[in-house]
Every structure is written in structure tokens, then in C-alpha cells.
Write a structure and sequence with these properties.
The chain is an alpha+beta fold and 171 residues long. It has three helices and six strands.
């Protein structure tokens, strides 16, 4: 879909353009999924069933469970949908699906409309095949655990190098 073609998106906007409410409608037995995407403000309270999506820089589209400035707040209806959308957004970020939508030369950024478009497109493919979402969740959970183990191992290796260097210097 071209970035100028907005007719395919089922969007409803509040009065300001910093909030996007969207519904994913799927034919047959699949339930309609709804979410809200807002521009994050530090003064706002943390919403239940939410995660945050970076909107500035070359990592635009990267989801994170904790808030940070320059992000959108993704609000789902329930914890299960929030987790599903988190991992779908993570998969879209890993696959660099947000990159064609990044604008700006000095400070790259992605708009709230483009973020909704990427999440809608990725979600439609995944929700139509629920076992793929389950496989995706399991794969990412396993890989995140493995990544955590490697990070701890890298930290221990760095400490061992430091200890060896200190022992060498002091002897």
C-alpha cells in the first residue's frame, strides 16, 4: 500500500491528530480487534494494557514495555491482545517494515498514521492465521530468554577481562 493511499485503513480520529483509534475487522470466525494509539506524554498516567512504540530515530517502530519520550502509547482492550500486538509490532520492527515510512533527514521519525498502517497490515496477516501468532510468541519468548543469557555471559566475560587486567597490572 502506498503511503498516500489511506482509504484502506479503518480509522477514526479524535479531535486532535495525536490519537488514532482503529479496528481490525476480519471475516468469518475472527473477532474484531481494537486498539488506541496516542502520542506519549510524561504528564499522562500509565494506561492498563499498554506498551510504547518509539517514533523518532532509525529505530522507529520499536516496541517497549516501559514509557520513554518520543514514543506512542499503544492501548489494547485486554492483556492478551496487548501481548499479541506487542509481539506483532516487535516482529514488524525486526522485519524493518517501519523503515519505508520513516521521514525526515536530520531527525528521522514516523507518524502515528504510518504506525497504525504498519500494525494493521502486519496484524491482518497474523490474525487470519492464529497458530502463526502462537508460534511467533513462543519463538520470541525463547529468543528473548536466550538473549538474556548471552547478555549475562557477555557481562561476566567483561568482568573476567577486567579482573585479569587488574591482576596483571598489580603483579
Amino acid at each position: 500500500m502506498k503511503s498516500g493511499d489511506r482509504t484502506a485503513l479503518p480509522l477514526c480520529f479524535a479531535d486532535n491528530r495525536s490519537t488514532a483509534n482503529t479496528q481490525l475487522m476480519h471475516k468469518s470466525k475472527y473477532k474484531m480487534k481494537q486498539f488506541t494509539l496516542k502520542t506519549y506524554r510524561t504528564s499522562a498516567s500509565v494506561e492498563l494494557n499498554s506498551f510504547y512504540i518509539l517514533n523518532k530515530g532509525m529505530n522507529s517502530g520499536r516496541p517497549h514495555p516501559k514509557p520513554f519520550c518520543n514514543s506512542f502509547t499503544f492501548i489494547a482492550d485486554n492483556p492478551e491482545e496487548m501481548e499479541m500486538f506487542y509481539w506483532i509490532t516487535f516482529a514488524a520492527w525486526q522485519a524493518k517494515l517501519f523503515h519505508p515510512y520513516i521521514k525526515g533527514s536530520v531527525i528521522p521519525f514516523i507518524t502515528i498514521m504510518d504506525t497504525v498502517e504498519v500494525i494493521n497490515d502486519a496484524s491482518k496477516r497474523c490474525i487470519a492465521n492464529p497458530e502463526r501468532v502462537g508460534n511467533l510468541l513462543q519463538t520470541f519468548h525463547t529468543l528473548n530468554q536466550l538473549e538474556g543469557k548471552y547478555e549475562r555471559l557477555a557481562k561476566l566475560t567483561t568482568e573476567a577481562k577486567r579482573a585479569a587486567a587488574l591482576k596483571f597490572i598489580k603483579s
